[in-house]
Amino acid sequence: MPSFHPGKTFMMDSSVPLTSPSRRAGALSELRQRVTGRWLFALLLVLGCAVLSLLVLAPLYTLLSKSVENKAGDFVGLDNFAHYLSSGGIESAFFNSLWVAGLSTLVVVGLAFMAAWALTRTRLPMTGWIRGVLVLPILAPSLLPAISLVYLFGNQGVLKSWLFGAEIYGPIGIIMGSCFWTFPHALMILLTAMDNADGRHYEAATALKASPWRTFWTVTVPGARYGLVSAAFVVFTLVITDFGVPKVIGGQFDVLATDIYKQVIGQQKFEMGAVVSVLLLLPAMLAFLADRYVQRKQSASFTARSVPYRPRRDHRRDVIGAVMLAPTILFILAIIGMAVYASFVTFWPYNLELSLNNYQFGRMDGGGWGAYTNSLQMALGTMVIGTLLVFFNAWLMERTPQPRLLTGVFQFLSLLPLAVPGLVLGLSYIFFFNHPDNPINGIYGTLFILILCTVSHFYAVSHLTAVTALKQLDQEFEAVGESLKASRWRVLFTVTLPLCLPAILDVALYLFVNAMTTVSAVVFLYGHDSQLASVAVLNMDEAGDIAPAAAMAILITTTCAAAKLIQGGLRFWVDRSTRAWRQGTE
Amino acid sequence: MKHLKKALALAALMAAVNANAQTELTVYTAVEAEDLKKYAARFNEDHPDIKINWVRDSTGVITARLLAEKENPQADVVWGLAGTSLLLLKNEGMLTPYAPEGLEKLSPKFRDRDETPSWVGMDAWMAAVCVNTIEAEKNNLPMPTSWQDLTNPVYRGHVVMPNPNSSGTGFLDVSAWLQLMGEDKGWEFMDGLHQNISRYTHSGSKPCKMAASGETSIGVSFAFRGARLKEKGAPLELVFPEEGLGWEVEATAIVDGTDKLEAAQTLVDWSITRQAMEMYNEGYAIVAMPGVAQPVEHFPANAEALIIDNDFGWAASNREAILTEWARRYDGKSEAK
Questions:
Q1: In a domain, B215, yes or no
Q2: pTM of the full predicted structure?
Q3: Contact A306, A198 (CB under 8 A)
Q4: What is the band of A297 on the pLDDT scale with cuts at 50, 70, 90?
Q5: pLDDT in tens, A311-370
Q6: What span, in angstroms and rounded, lies between the C-alpha atoms of B327 and A514?
Q7: In a shared domain, residues B117 and B259
Q8: B301 found inside a domain
Q9: Which of A385, A458, B2, B136 is most buried when burial is the number of CB atoms within 10 A of its CB?
């Protein structure tokens, strides 16, 4: 897909003097207007904080507060923590979590950066299709890679020998599975960070006769720094809080996240589950602080004077790009391909006859087509509500004057959901939204609560994408707008929104596909008439119907891929219909 | 306008008729999804005026969900949940005791011991060992016949069982071994078994599924799953160890605070009728009403004689201590590797 390079027109605009020398009389009323404007924006962001508190903080409090209570609900201080920590061996689970998440982060961020570089800094053909393949993992329910990894590397696996006698059940499986599903998250952030590069920096580098290697380290990497740190933060937190992959393929390799599962699902000890959740928040909190620290140093990379970068012809560089993309693409295609094959097999591995029977969802238990329609409705709702909420809040935070403290609080609230395992979020929603004293407990058990929960669950990455896109626009746009007497609202609708449309489409797609595939939180919240397809996949697998489960998973993946195609089409159209406008001065 | 009024009146009337005709019950269950339609349809043959709205998930998730909803329960009835889970709910005061019609016909093992029971049983699901015949032959494994056999070094690395800290089925096995062999012998047996275990899973059906797909040769799991997988074409042999089998009752209860008590009671009444028992018998070899059960394919004919005299009270009150001890001995995290 061609990417969207805004900018040229604004080179002209930015030459408009910032302090327009006219209308001294109006200055006072203008000042008043500005002050009230400031208040209005701050108030709106306070409102945004309130919404997130309602969707994330309040529900979480109802569950996490149990970590300092006993079963009867009396306050017991840190007794539960002491009990949990003294139960022995916790250090190794903690250590396991850290190194597995750390290694996965290194691999994923490395591969994603290589892929993003190849996509934005070379002239490889068919980048649209390549991007499509690279986001495939996010389009698939998490069970799909689990099935594939077992079929590929399990005891009966076709590639078992590749592991040199090691077992897929354990850290190897966890890292492979985690890398697979978190890769698109990292890629999405890095692409947003690298899509809009300033061509002038590269021109300067060429003029200074810097080698490509040096240019890479002095221009490309620093430009992507914020994206790299954000991606690392996101991947690390996602892996350390995920229990889906370790549960299915981790064998008895203990990590903190599976401990939550043991405590809550295995033994119904909510208070101990809360203790582990709080402990899991700690590393995520550290990652959050590191992210804040780097972010403070970040300034807009794409200024009003920027010239979109267009890589020059260079075959050697293109070949390097292709080599960097190849392993990732192969790995993704192998996993998806195996799952497609699995959905046609009659009974793995003893009856490999292929048949279409597994695709007759109407005859299947677990909701069949009804569940599929529910999932579609839920995903569309999540997409619309989520995108509006995320983008508006991100705009308030980034593009309007806000007290620093407020943006800090807001940033914290929006990233918090990332550090919360879905299982914990789902249970929290029961405690909070089903409480008899909650005035809106009527939404419990409806499709609407599934939508709210999913928006909160996937808020953080959407927020980061929106913020990264908004950050890249020069603050001068607003300043110029002001001097031209255009309100921030007008700048929002005439400049910011069109420039951010690609990122907005990305966020919409991200929310849609995650809503289609999510399981961990919604499994606690669906009602009798809001069964979801992703949950049906899990149930079928649980019942041993692996092939029908794979078939349903493929159906979900196909739906998400269709959504991706539509989104790609829209991006192309946006790009084309604004090309004249963007190139008007050429 | 007139038409609109008419339509509205008609709609209101329809709604009223519907409301009279059908009471909707929200029923939480852990019964296999594939059986739910059948259960509802058979019930509706006798009671077409009550519509069942199922909410189904695995035992652990449904139990956690019921407990989390304690302040404002959503379920009217629980139909098909493990006795251990119902005991938890009962202790939380979440069940309404009710003596359904025909209660006296149930075997005393299959009901809450209170005079007015909080739950009444449906059937029993019992432990079984799933052996993959193809893989066993490949690895030269003899067919085990007893639990003790499984400690034979020949099986080293070929056995998978559920972790009792994550899975009810896992706990059922451990508690049965301790009751069968006594505490000391029981732990000694598990020490031996542990040597042969290649991994502990988080789900009770997983070991049998892994055996079915050849990921392991032997999976300690439960009979129902094994039988279903065999029907689907898995090369499995179900072994029922001769020392005795752990088992768990699957039962029905009314959730306290339901505003559809009458319909809920109707459902519970029906759930222990002979007809219902015959329906359970299609998938389970042991049902709560003595003398009903016919032999079920892939199950042993003498299933009832194989199960141990399970002391659920003992198991419940010692659960915490057993799980802690188990984790101390065998959990990967406490294992300094």
A1: yes
A2: 0.86
A3: yes
A4: low
A5: 888 888 899 999 999 999 999 999 999 989 988 888 888 888 888 877 877 656 556 788
A6: 35
A7: yes
A8: no
A9: A458
Integer Cα distance of B252 and B254 in angstroms: 7
% pLDDT > 90, chain A? 30
User: Which residues does chain B have within 8 Å of residue A543's beta carbon, measured at their own beta carbons?
Assistant: 32-34, 205, 225, 228
Q: Which residues of chain B have pLDDT under 50?
A: 1, 16-17, 19, 333-337
Rounded Cα–Cα distance for residues B248 and B168 (Å): 9
Q: Which of B74, B166, B203 sits opposite A445 (nearest CB)?
A: B74
Same domain, B204 and B235: yes
pLDDT tens, position by position, A391-450? 999 999 988 888 889 998 998 899 899 888 888 999 899 999 999 999 988 898 889 999
Structure tokens at B333: 């995290």
Task: Please answer yes or no on whether B336 and A258 come within 8 Å at the CB atom.
Answer: no
Picking from A96, A348, A366, the nearest residue to B33 by CB comes out as A366
**Shortest CB distance from B60 goes to which of A251, A265, A539?**
A265
Distance from CA of A285 to the nearest CA of B (A): 24
Nearest to B127 by CA among B59, B214, B197, B205: B205
Tell whether B208 and B323 lie within a shared domain.
yes
Window 250-269 of B, Cβ < 8 Å to A: none
Q: Give me the residue from A93, A430, A535 closest to B69, CB to CB.
A: A430
CA–CA separation, B57 vs B34, rounded Å? Answer: 12
- A366 and B163 within 8 Å at the Cβ level: the answer is no
B64 inside 8 A of chain A by CB = yes
Which architecture does CATH list for A8-13+67-299+312-347+373-579?
Answer: Orthogonal Bundle (1.10)
So what's the ipTM on this one?
Answer: 0.84
Same domain assignment for residues B181 and B315: yes
Report chain A residues whose CB lies below 8 A from the CB of B315.
none
Q: Would B303 be classed as within a structural domain?
A: no
- Tell me: do B179 and B321 sit in the same domain: yes
A contact test, residue of B58, B213, B229 with most A CBs within 10 A: B213
Question: B interface mutation test: which of A152, A430, A435, A519 has the most B CBs within 10 A?
Answer: A430
Task: List the domain range (segments joined by +) for residue B51.
Answer: 2-124+248-295
Task: Tell me the CA distances in angstroms from A404 to A127, A237, A407, one per residue in order.
Answer: 39, 25, 5
CA A41 distance to own-chain centroid: 27
Contact B166 A266 (CB under 8 A): yes
Query: Do the Cβ atoms of A434 and B332 come within 8 Å?
Result: no
